[in-house]
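Thread: Newbie trying to understand structure tokens

Hi all, I'm a second-year student working on a class project, and my supervisor (Dr. K.) asked me to get a predicted structure for one chain before our next meeting. I've only ever worked with sequences, so writing a 3D structure as a token string is new to me. If someone could post the tokens and maybe explain what I'm looking at, I'd be very grateful. Here's the chain:
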Amino acid sequence: MLVNKSFHHFWQTFLHPRVFIFILTGTAIIFFTFLTNNNALEIAISGIASVFIGIGVNNFSSFETHVKDEKKLQTKIGHSLKVMAMAKKRISRLSDQMGTEGCFKMKKELIEIEEFMNLGISLIQEGDTSLDK
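---
Reply by user tm_fold:
Sure, no problem. This is what the structure looks like when written as tokens:
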């Protein structure tokens, strides 16, 4: 299952136009070496082909890096949301447990902090959905 998924991801990235076209062009240029008897010309043709193949491989690795970075970012956003939700829950619980007599000002501050936490959570969730597009 994991091998199949990895192969599918590899194949999908390999067939991306910025990867496939350069590698295919480099491979096609390599075949021109069969049409010449001049060693210097063969080396020059091979050098040009290796440039195209190198660009294709570089594009492939940049796509791989981008996917890994996206996964890390999604994980960090998820952890941040969980921590903020836990802090909001604790603040809300503290606010509910306080009496209204002598701690009115502190209760008001806790309510404002809870609103800030709600705002932070909604901004992270809003940013999280815009990253998926």
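A couple of things are worth pointing out once you decode it. The chain is about 85% helix and 0% strand. The chain has a mean pLDDT of 82. Feel free to ask follow-ups in this thread.
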